[in-house]
Amino acid sequence: MNENFDKNPESDEFMQRQDFLHIHNSDQLNETELFDTSALILDVKNEQIILKMLRRIRTMRYKSFYLKPVFLAEGEYSSEIIGQTDGILLLDQLPNILDRVEKINSRIQNIRTVTSKYSFSESLLVKTLQYLYTRKTELIPFRDRMSALSYCFPFLSGMISREDQVLLLDVLEKASEEGLLERTLIDRVNLCKTCSGTYHNFREVCPSCGSLDLESVDLIHHFRCAYIGPADDYKQGGALICPKCDKELRHIGIDYDKPSEIFNCGDCSHQAQEPNMRAHCVDCGEDSELEYLSVKPIYRYRLTVYGEEIAEHGLEKIDKDNMPSTDDQRILSFETWQVMLRNEIERVKINKSSSKIISAKISPEITDPMDPDTRRDFKTEVFRELASYVRPVDLLTSNSPNEVFVLFPDIRKKEIAEMESVFEYNLNKMVGDNLGDRNDLITIKVINVDDNATSFGL
Amino acid sequence: MNPILEYIVPEYLQYWYYGGLSKFSRIFWHFLVFEFSRYIVIDFVVLFIYWVGRKRRKYDWETARQKLFNENPFVSIIVPGKNEGGHLFKLVKSLNEQTYQNCELIIVDDGSNDQTPLIGKSLLRNGMLTKFLRNDIRGGKASAANLALRFSTGKYCVHLDADCSFDRDAIENVLVPFYLDEKIGAVGGNVKVRDFESSLAARLQAIEYLKTIAMGRTVTSALGIYKIISGAFGAFKMDAVNNIGGWDIGPGLDGDITVKLRKSGYKIHFEPTAVCLTSCPPSFKVLKKQRLRWDKSIVRFRVRKHNDVFTPYKEFNWLTFIALFENVFYNVVLNFAWWIYFIDILINFTGALQYIIPMNITLYIVAGYLQMISLYILSERKEEELKLWPYVPLMTIYTGLFLRLVRTRAYFDELFMRKSYDDPWNPVKSSDQAKASGF
Question: Which of A162, A412, B362, B395 is the 20 to 30 Å CA partner of B21?
Fold first, then answer.
């Protein structure tokens, strides 16, 4: 703990304060100044300075500082600046804002500070989860022309420089793979192979010499004699005269048409119908063919129950296998189960046998309200229930808090259909006691064991 | 006749033995005058002379081949077509194997509505084509060929169909004749059926192609009256084809351009060693459609468009006159003459039909096998083509009945209704203009 503090910044007393601190310059952003405040109002017009201030706040050591609600004083700001903060402080909305600040600070109390043991990317990840947890919001990227990615993520983008924004995608992808975040695709961006920039000038160039000096000319087809050539072949004075049969072309659609066009290169005289398309990076000047641009998907993210757990307790809480402890040897860690699945795929190919996987998904409506211990107990119960119906050779696993997979080697159609209905009936019965007659809480899916099985995220 | 022979020899042969030559020639005059004399006697005489001159020809060939490789002219291979994407990769692979390589490959997609544009662009990106040109609006095969011609830069132009593949020396062999005689303006390749074992229709067409192309065109080329370069495989001197304005609206544009070249004073040569394998209609139903189109074009182009070759016009040429006369006479005139012959036999020899029909079939089968023997001697694919021999007897029905009926209908349709202008093979806009202009 910083010895300059005479009070513990993690204490309840600190969190109870509702003092808003007006910040006019960077010098005010020291931990002593921030100590007694429940939110900050940045009263600075220069957006560059605001960004620097935000980065400084978000990279502070303590949760009560780096997660502190930050507002902008009334004024005009770019969407990027607004997105990095908790909004503009409008006096007519003050009661709502006060209420929000109180809630945010109250949630901040529930979580652990990111420790110095974390790597930079781990710290980015946990801070992001904590931000989503304390703000009870989704991470929705917004378009930003100044960002290297063309998109900025609220809170998260403020922590790293514009050039390194692409690193965020890796962090968020990993978080999704581990089940901490759920994602929805909203866009794809093309990154420069040299600088990862997304600002490109797309240009048509000569496929032979790469020159930009291209001129497009219509091709004209004379119906009568089947001659076809560039419009220049026909032009004589103001008229169009066919070079093959010397007839005048008077009426488009009756005498002639223009079935396509062709490009003439002013540098090398090459003629082509399909000029090459190249992307010229505005940031670094790299000129690349389109296939060499790296395509990155942009998603919006929602915190999962598991993610909330990590936001509260830190990465130490990550249950790598997400599996209940059991002596049943048919219940495997997800990694081990994946190995068995790959073997099974190969075996099925050789033996031409029929193996299946059943995926049983339980609605988050059931698991989300549970506290972590109850959730774990519930999952153990689900495993026990399913294990009681399957054969000694069938293998069970899970890779998320509310989905279980069962691998059925060599199973007949009739048997798998029976198993599907048994799973559905019993899981519905398990959850139905509390939630009435709803039948949309359990989703059972049968997947063939073949090369496509791995594309189901298995 | 010896009593033992009488016992052995079929009754219908005995009938002709006792009937004598006068009766035989009275009944089979059509066969003897027009078919035996033309397709057996003349063909065999010419082929014999051709065979005798093989050493001299081999020497001339080697000299011409040397000239070709010394000059190493740039050649434009052009492939116009619609919805031919599925054939393109195989075609390109076949051309990559060629012994003559100083070529550009230009493919024209004439308004395809399948995957052809994607396949063509992909081949272009991978450097397997020189140019891939596309007309978003279909203009017909002639305009597609002319578009390729417009952007060709070679000294020679080789026109191919996309569904063909080629012997490794096919391009070389189709170019060599240009160095045998500088008056040669175009060379036709030898088109054979690739998938002839796929159906009966394909087998019969394979035999027909051998007789009419491999043998028939070798003979007409030797006589100087060769008149059709197949669209599937033909080579042209670029300046010659440009001078005549390229291809005119089809159907039958391959025969049309050949006649145009002949009329411009160029010699046309058929090269049997330049072998191209093509797909043929797999069923008689599809074949009928193809032949109706081809046969209509004989009336449209030979009888109408190029009828000036039969009159003493400025560029009158006896060989061109004979070439087209033979074509029109044997196809159109004799087709109708055969029906007169048929009625004559039905009316005057009703009681002898049980002897006439088997004899007629026997004559055609024997003639068919005689032709197959000469083809066997000349062929570079002896073993494969032997597989066609059992089907030669069926050619009597195929050519004598099926093709004759199709041809008769086509001639009627074209002579009296000008049906070729309604053929969907050409876009309506082009057919309308061609009809209005009298092409």
Answer: B395
Q: How far is CA B246 from the centre of its chain?
A: 19
Q: Where are the domains of chain A?
A: 1-109, 207-274, 319-456
* Tokens found for residue A212: 């930009």
Residue indicated by tokens 């035999």: B207
Contact A223 B429 (CB under 8 A): yes
Q: Is pLDDT at B120 greater than 80 in this prediction? A: yes
Buried b (16+ CB within 10 A) or exposed e, B137-165: ebbbbbbbbbbbbbbbebbbbbbbbbbbb
Tell me the fold of A1-109. Rossmann fold (3.40.50)
pLDDT tens digit sequence for B57-90:
999 999 999 999 999 999 999 999 999 999 999 8
- Selecting from B134, B247, B433 the residue whose C-beta is nearest the C-beta of A223 gives B433
> What is the distance between the alpha carbons of residues A435 and A373, in angstroms, rounded to a whole number?
20
Q: Average pLDDT for residues B294-310, to the nearest whole number?
A: 86
Report the alpha-carbon distance of residue A200 to residue A191 in Å, rounded. Answer: 9
How does pLDDT run across A346-370, given as a tens digit for each residue?
898 888 888 999 998 888 777 777 7
- Identify residues of B whose CB sits under 8 angstroms from chain A CBs: 111, 121, 124, 131-140, 142-144, 146-147, 150-151, 245-249, 429-430, 432-434, 437, 439
For A249, the token pair is: 């072309």
Q: Do B131 and A272 touch (CB under 8 A)?
A: yes
Give the class (CATH, top level) of A319-456. Answer: alpha beta
Cα angle for residues B251, B255, B256 (degrees, 5° grid):
75
CB pairs under 8 A between A and B: 79
**Mean pLDDT, range B145-155, rounded to an integer:** 95
Burial B40-56 (b: 16+ CB within 10 A, else e): beebeebbeebeeeeee
Partners of residue B152 in chain A, C-beta under 8 Å: none
Q: Is the peptide bond before B251 cis (omega within 30 degrees of 0)?
A: yes
pLDDT tens, residue by residue, B206-221? 999 999 999 999 999 9
Residue range A119-172, pLDDT digits in tens: 788 888 888 899 999 998 899 998 887 777 888 888 887 777 766 777 788 888
CA–CA distances in Å: residue B75 to residues B66, B163, B255, B257: 16, 20, 22, 19
The tokens describing B287, both together, are 């074949």
- Hey, are the CB atoms on B136 and A259 less than 8 Å from each other? yes
Look up residue A282 and give its two tokens.
Answer: 């505005």
Is the CB of residue A261 less than 8 Å from the CB of residue A143? no
Closest residue to A225, CB basis, from B111, B150, B245: B245
ipTM above 0.90, yes or no: no
> Do A273 and B134 make contact, defined as CB atoms within 8 angstroms?
yes
Rounded distance between C-alpha atoms, residue B403 and residue B414, angstroms: 16
Q: Which of A205, A208, A228 to substitute to test the interface with B, most B CBs within 10 Å?
A: A228
How many Cα atoms within 13 Å fall on the side-chain side of residue A87? 11
Asked if residues B235 and B158 have their Cβ atoms less than 8 Å apart, the reply is yes
- Chain A hits for B131, CB-CB cut-off 8 Å, are 271-273
Give the mean pLDDT of B82-106: 92
Q: Which two tokens stand for residue B394?
A: 């069926």
Name the nearest CA neighbour of B251 among B426, B373, B122. B426
Residue B243: band (very low, low, confident or very high) from pLDDT cuts 50, 70, 90: very high
Give B140→chain A minimum CA distance, Å. 8
Domains recognised in chain B with CATH numbers: 3-41+324-432 (no CATH), 49-321 (3.90.550.10)
Test B139 with A221 for CB contact under 8 angstroms.
yes
Distance from C-alpha of A421 to C-alpha of A424, rounded to nearest angstrom: 5
Give A294's strand partners.
A191
Burial call A44-67: b when 16+ CB within 10 Å, e when fewer: beeeeebbebbeebbebebbbbbb
